[in-house]
Amino acid sequence: MILSKFVDELPILPILKPRWTDPFQTYYEVKMTEFKQSLHSELNDTTVWGYEGSYPGPTIEVESGERVFIKWINNLPDKHLLPIDYTVHGAHTDVPDTRTVVHVHGASVEPDSDGYPDAWFTNGFAKVGPKFKKEVYQYDNNQRSVTQWYHDHTIGITRLNIYAGLAGFYLIRDQKERLLNLPSGKYDIPLMIQDRSFHTDGSLYYPNQPPKPIKRLKTSIIHEFFGNTILVNGKVWPYLNVEPRKYRFRLLNGSNTRFYRIKLDSGQRIYQIGTDSGLKEYPVGIKEILLAPAERTDVIIDFTNLEGKNIIMTNDAPAPFPDGDSANVVKIIMQFRVSIPLSSIDTSVIPQDMEPIQKLSEQTASNVRYLTLNDNMDQYGREFMLLDNKQWDAPITENPKLGSTEIWYLINLTTDTHPIHIHLIGFQILDRRPFDVDKYNKEGVIHYTGPIIPPDPQEQGEKDTVRADPKQVTRIIMKFGPYTGLYVWHCHILEHEDYEMMRPYMVIR
């Protein structure tokens, strides 16, 4: 079934209103429900899951330093929308099928409000996971202005819950950002980019077996998922009518596995002003942007003097990345139509410099960790990935001290690029360097085979998700805090995360 492109307008995600607010705190309630939504005008309405009756969920917008409380409420039906593999850790038959827990991705937050994978809860909190602590989460938002997102993080079924629709934007704003005179208001638009496939009746398609089916299992986890259509803000291949002026777009790769290498078919530059964890020191003008799953980038696109033009946002990232099949590439993301007359003079700017970022010095690191990314086979002959060759429930081995700075060497022994996300903290990318994988596998020694590769211009700044490329050692540096307790780090390819490529870590005093 081939769907027409650019027939539906891009949905602008609504801002969620709090239940109440006072000078000291703000309180939200966010319900998760099942409903039908039109994802393309040529499809029947699709049954999805979402927050507050929409997929993606409404945008939560807060001030830096604002103390926010959110009660995440599971009002979902008992039966899951998608096929569950009960051989996956945490998803066995002795727990309810429909469990949820919410993680605000990029948030600096106390451990009990971070959305730990085992802190799940069911409809009405009737059943809860072993690490569940409380119904109302607290977010202190002790960060500068930043584009974050909230999404499900339940052990064993994260890939299914997010695919069903459980994701939304969470934006922190501050006065410094306002003084920069960036495009704002209706000219500041978050874009969640995801891939999906559909049955002919309009329902979501998610495979219940890998390409080589596992005969002994009714449903088996797949190693990677690639949908054949691209949705932006919950619409397949939409268009957006714009004025001939500057717009700010917050791009999020919300896909399970797919990477995006984004360009504009007009050939014009995109001005990147921010990374995952906030604004950059100064903008960079780039022709293409690579986004791994869960990465965000904050950009300005200038449509000035382009009246009457249609500009297509394209993608040419191989799938899987970086050496995948060109047959899996979906080349079109969305279209901009410069079709609205200018409503007022555009006084917004692309600033020359924005926010100084304090570079962490390698000399300040009190600990260095060498952590491998490994490929394995399970009892059914399925591939599964590990961090430091350890499964989820192995004893905790990463226990950084509060306030300490560490350097992590991510040693990728697999053939995939893995987007590695560490909860609680932001980090800076030091460099990448190719090494001899065979020698490492035989002798456990890193033998570098090429020069140091500095981070891409688009990665310079604060990050919370990093591409660990195959046959390379990726080095990141970070300071742990301001909270102590139990967090996780994992690959953000959701099929990998769900099947063992996630580890707990503990910040200690």
UniProtKB/TrEMBL annotation:
Leader peptide range in chain numbering: none
Taxonomy, superkingdom: Bacteria
Listed Pfam families: Cu-oxidase_2, Cu-oxidase_3
InterPro entries named in the record: Cu-oxidase-like_N, Cu-oxidase_C, Cu-oxidase_fam, Cupredoxin
CDD domains assigned to the protein according to its UniProt record, in alphabetical order: CuRO_1_BOD_CotA_like, CuRO_2_CotA_like, CuRO_3_CotA_like
Coiled-coil portions: none
Occurrences of domain Plastocyanin-like (ranges): 45-82, 97-176, 373-507
Assigned protein family: Belongs to the multicopper oxidase family.
Protein name: Multicopper oxidase
